[in-house]
Design a protein that fits this description.
Helix content is about 10%, strand content about 25%. By secondary structure, the protein is an alpha+beta fold.
């Protein structure tokens, strides 16, 4: 994890292959070298293979819980005002009903039906690791990178009994590290 390694190779080996989740794979020719330093570059095309589950990110194939994922590009492609409207019909088991026909009417969101008779059936909204009430109507659709909906009992293991109504994890877009700084232009205001 810290990047230090030592490896013994046979004389017939010609190349070393370096790979890590979230980084581009790099192949290095061994030759007569006794020391090989490698810097892996971050990749962005692996983001769809990783799912946020509340306390970590895991590969979808290793996931055992029921999760629906919707990308920000899918949400932004729908011509609606709020993310709640854009999410409608995109995630299985998520029921989004408008309270009335008014343009600014609120939404009732239930995940896999109501689980409580006397308490609220509203799911928990977690935005970038922090709880936020009614996040699907307050966050701009264009600011959302992805939405994961946790729908099963494993979500209660993460968030306690309040997670029994389901959890909507919203990841917003963040700045990306530029690789090429030669294209930057500076503007000086006097």
């Amino acid at each position: 994890m810290s990047g230090n390694y030592s490896i013994t190779v046979s004389p017939s080996d010609k190349e070393l292959l370096f790979s890590f989740v979230g980084y581009d794979t790099q192949t290095v020719v061994i030759g007569n070298k006794t020391r090989i330093d490698v810097t892996l570059q971050e990749t962005s095309h692996l983001l769809d293979e990783v799912v946020a589950i509340g306390y970590s990110k895991v590969k979808r194939k290793d996931l055992t819980g029921a999760i629906s994922s919707v990308s920000g590009t899918e949400l932004a492609a729908v011509p609606v005002v709020s993310a709640a409207q854009a999410l409608q019909g995109k995630a299985a088991g998520v029921n989004i009903v408008t309270a009335s026909g008014a343009p600014d009417a609120g939404f009732n969101i239930t995940i896999r039906g109501g689980t409580s008779i006397t308490q609220s059936t509203t799911p928990i909204y977690i935005v970038d690791g922090f709880e936020m009430s009614d996040a699907l109507t307050t966050i701009d659709i264009n600011d959302i990178e992805s939405i994961e909906v946790l729908k099963d009992a494993s979500s209660t293991a993460i968030y306690g009994s309040r997670g029994s109504n389901g959890i909507i994890l919203i990841t917003t877009k963040s700045g990306k590290k530029r690789k090429d700084y030669s294209q930057l232009q500076y503007l000086f205001i006097v």
